[in-house]
Prior knowledge:
The structure holds 2 protein chains of 2 kinds.
Chain A: H1 19-50, H2 52-57, H3 65-92, H4 101-124
Chain B: H1 6-30, H2 39-47, H3 51-77, H4 81-109
Amino acid sequence: MEKFSRPRFLNLLQISFPATAILSILHRISGVVLTLYLPLSLVLFERSLLSADSFQQLPQLWDVLLVRLLVVAGLWALSHHMISGVRILLLDFGVGIAGEDAQRSAYVVAGASISTLLWILWGLV
Amino acid sequence: MFVLTGMRAWVVQRFSAIVLLLVVPWLFISSPQINTMNYEEWRLWVSGGFNPPLIMGGFTALLFHLWVGIRDVLLDYVRHRLLRLLLLGSVAVLLFWLGLWLALILLRAL
């Protein structure tokens, strides 16, 4: 790429990101996080169905603070990924892509995501 | 080798997203209350009616969605060709294995 001597500036700490860009990277991060949760969820799902005994052992996990934090983080990642996914699908169909709309809907998604986090915390803690 | 690329990957990602947006909230809403349910009630819900094919179908959509998503991430960040190929291959095997695992769990619950 060096043959094009264009200026390049890639200092991530100094580039100012619009809300849409931040939302885009959060969609990716939440997606990767959810992927990591998947094998763990299958282990829990399997144990919940194996026998009445293994089913009854599961609530004990809830006493561990780390487990609670992981559940909250997982549910938040899921809800955030779904909400911002809806926005992406709408953008694909041309809804809200014109002018400032994409920027505005990014703030709506951010607000909705934070609201669901509060909802999750309210429901679980 | 079966790899989704270009427009087809894009369509699969969007289509599976729509399936998941319908199936995941539905499963959350229709499942028994987590703090009051017992083992028998839970097992009956998982194995009853259309739920086994619904769960398996949703999970299959999820695996396709994951494949396109992880593929995109790996293509963006892993520059080394052999390592990239190795990672893509491992992910494909892993996803396939997760699908088989869920099928076994559901069959045993029937």
